[in-house]
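[User] I have long wanted to understand how a fold can be written as tokens. Those tokens are not coordinates but codes from a learned vocabulary of shapes. Could you go through the record with me and say what the backbone is doing? Thank you; the sequence and its tokens follow:
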Amino acid sequence: MAVETYDPRTAATTRVTEAPVTVSPAAVEHFRRQLQKDHSARAVRLSVKESGCTGFMYVVDLVPEVNADDIRQTLEEGVELMIDRGSLNVVNGTQIDLVTEGVNRQLRFQNPNAKDHCGCGESFSVG
């Protein structure tokens, strides 16, 4: 799995061997299908935003272009995952899976940095 980081201050691109996020084959396939449906989208972007009662929530967007300071992670089947550099310290080490419960499917995030989750499951805190 190839991961590239780009530092806009120095215009340097660095390849690293350890991926900041692990994505299951089921989640990769889900992302691939979503990208195929949206012809304007080039990649999946993972970030966090302040939300909910405990602090942060995950944001997964289909994006038409890469932000200059995103961390680029190439997944299986050529799926590009962009990780917001400002969110990296919160999501580093996270495992993303697509789980099925009854007739519902959803992305599940196993984040070693999350110390607390709200009761509704929307937000989490890091400590």
Observations:
- The first helix runs from residue 25 to 37.
- The longest strand covers residues 43-51.
- The two ends are 29 Å apart (CA to CA).
